[in-house]
Design goal:
This protein is of the alpha+beta class and about 450 residues long. It is built from twelve helices and 16 strands.
Length: about 450
C-alpha cells in the first residue's frame, strides 16, 4: 500500500516552526503586578538572519515628537501646489531617515486651501531638535569640478565643508556653481522615444538657462553633482553644451527611481516655507504602560475565545484553537517581515481580527453539524461544510476589507494603522479558516 503523505499538513507544520523561530528572537519583559519575568530571546546567527526582526513601534509606544507644519503656497502656481507639497514631504522623509530615526510617519493633509504636513518622529523627545530638523526649506545646488583657487562667480568650499558625496564624485576641489533651485522651473518624468526608458526632463527659467548653458559648456565630459539638503541626489555626466533651458537626465532608471528624482528636484525648484502649527512630545512611559495593558487584554481575549470554542464544539473547538494559534503566529511574523509600525490602534485592529478569524470557524462548524444531522459521514460533512460556508465567509471578509480600505485611504495617523492591521488580519484569517482549519480537520477526522 502506498504510504500516505499529507503535503498540506507538512506545509502548515513548517510554516508554524518558521513563525515560532522568528518570534522567539526578541527579548521581552512581562510585568504582572510586582512580578517581572524577563525573556532573553534566542540569537539565530546560525541561520544568517542579519536583519533586525524586532517589532517597530509607533510614536504612542516608543515616545517621541509630533509636529504639524503648515505649508505657505503663496507664490506657487495652483497647478503645481500638489507637487510642491509632495516634494516637501519627500524632503522631510529624507531628512528624518538620514537622521537615523526608525519608522518616522510623514503625511500630507489638504483642506480647501490649507496645506499641512504631519510629522511623527519616534525616539526624538527634544521638540526643538525635531522642529529644526523638519521645518527648514529645501535647498538645491549644483556642484562642478574646480581649481584650487576661486575663479568667476563660483564659490570654493573646503573639503570638510563639501556636501555628502561631492568629494567622491566631483573631487576634493569641487565648487558650488551659481545655479540654484530658484533657477529650475520644473522637473518631470518622460520616456525616451528610442529606448522607451524613463528619464527626467529639466526646464530652467530664462536666467537659469543662461547659467546652465555656461556651466555645461565648461564641463563637457565631466560630472555635475546635484545636491539637495547637502546630500548628492544625482551626478550626471555632461555630454555636450546645453543651451535653451531644457535638459534631460538619462541613465539606468526604473520608473520609480525617475519619479523619486523628479520629486527631489522639484523640492528645490518649488521651495515652500513651512511654519509650525502644533508641536508636542509624547513620553515613552505612557506608551509602555498602555502596551502592557493592551497585550494583557489580547492574551486574556485569546484564552477566553479558546475556552469558549472548546466548550461549545469539543474536539472541533480544539482544532479551531490550533488554527487560531497558527493564525496569531503568522500575523505577528508578517508584522516583523513587512515590517508594520505598531501603534495602540494597530494592536486593537489585530485583536479585533482574531474575533473575525473565529467567526469563520463557527460558520464552518455549524454547516458541518447540519450535514452530520442529515446522516453524512465526517469526511463528506467537512467538504460540504467548507463549500457551503465559503460564500458567507468571503462576503463578510470582503465587506471588512472594503471598510478597512476606506479607513486607510481617508484616515491619517493611528486610524491608518488600525485599518492596515485589521485588513492584514482579515486576509490571514481567510487563509487560516479555509486552509489551516481544513488541513487539521482532515487529520483529526481522516477515517
Amino acid at each position: 500500500m502506498r504510504k500516505y503523505i499529507n503535503l498540506p499538513l507538512i506545509f502548515v507544520l513548517l510554516l508554524t516552526v518558521f513563525c515560532v523561530l522568528l518570534n522567539v528572537t526578541e527579548p521581552y519583559t512581562i510585568n504582572v503586578g510586582s512580578v517581572h519575568y524577563k525573556y532573553p530571546g534566542i540569537n539565530l546567527k546560525a541561520l544568517h538572519l542579519n536583519r533586525n526582526f524586532a517589532f517597530r513601534r509607533g510614536l504612542d509606544l516608543e515616545g517621541g515628537t509630533s509636529v504639524t507644519l503648515k505649508a505657505d503656497m503663496n507664490g506657487v502656481p495652483a497647478s503645481q501646489r500638489e507637487n510642491a507639497l509632495d516634494s516637501a514631504k519627500a524632503v522631510i522623509e529624507r531628512r528624518v531617515n538620514f537622521f537615523g530615526v526608525s519608522e518616522p510617519v510623514v503625511q500630507t493633509s489638504k483642506a480647501n486651501q490649507d496645506y499641512r504636513i504631519i510629522v511623527e518622529i519616534p525616539g526624538v523627545t527634544d521638540v526643538n531638535q525635531a522642529v529644526a530638523l523638519v521645518g527648514k526649506t529645501a535647498k538645491l545646488t549644483f556642484w562642478e569640478e574646480g581649481p584650487q583657487e576661486a575663479s568667476g562667480s563660483a564659490k570654493i568650499a573646503s573639503g570638510s565643508a563639501l556636501p555628502l558625496g561631492v568629494a567622491q564624485l566631483v573631487g576634493p576641489t569641487a565648487r558650488q556653481t551659481e545655479l540654484t533651485g530658484s533657477d529650475l522651473k520644473q522637473a518631470a518624468v518622460s520616456f525616451n522615444s528610442n529606448s522607451g526608458k524613463p528619464q527626467v526632463e529639466l526646464t530652467f527659467t530664462g536666467a537659469g538657462a543662461k547659467k546652465f548653458g555656461d556651466i555645461t559648456k565648461r564641463n563637457v565630459g565631466k560630472i555635475l553633482a546635484i545636491v539637495l539638503d547637502n546630500i548628492v541626489v544625482e551626478a550626471p555626466r555632461v555630454n555636450e553644451p546645453i543651451f535653451g533651458g531644457n535638459a534631460v537626465i538619462t541613465g539606468a532608471f526604473t520608473t520609480e527611481q525617475a519619479k523619486t528624482l523628479q520629486i527631489q528636484l522639484n523640492a528645490g525648484a518649488l521651495p515652500i516655507s513651512l511654519s509650525v502649527l502644533e508641536q508636542h512630545a509624547i513620553g515613552a512611559s505612557l506608551g509602555q504602560a498602555s502596551l502592557q495593558k493592551s497585550l494583557l487584554a489580547g492574551a486574556l481575549g485569546f484564552v477566553v475565545i479558546v475556552l469558549f470554542m472548546i466548550f461549545l464544539y469539543g474536539r472541533l473547538g480544539i482544532v479551531a484553537s490550533l488554527a487560531l494559534t497558527v493564525y496569531t503566529l503568522l500575523v505577528l511574523t508578517l508584522f516583523r517581515l513587512i515590517p508594520v509600525t505598531l501603534t495602540l490602534a494597530g494592536i486593537a485592529g489585530f485583536i479585533l481580527s482574531i474575533g473575525i478569524a473565529v467567526d469563520a470557524n463557527i460558520l464552518i462548524f455549524e454547516r458541518m453539524k447540519e450535514e452530520i444531522r442529515k446522516g453524512r459521514s465526517w469526511s463528506a460533512a467537512i467538504d460540504m461544510g467548507f463549500s457551503r460556508a465559503w460564500p458567507s465567509i468571503r462576503d463578510s471578509n470582503v465587506a471588512s476589507l472594503i471598510t478597512s480600505s476606506i479607513l486607510y485611504y481617508f484616515g491619517t495617523g493611528i486610524i491608518r494603522g488600525f485599518a492596515f492591521t485589521l485588513a492584514l488580519g482579515v486576509l490571514v484569517s481567510m487563509f487560516s479558516a479555509i486552509f489551516v482549519t481544513r488541513t487539521l480537520l482532515k487529520v483529526f477526522y481522516r477515517k
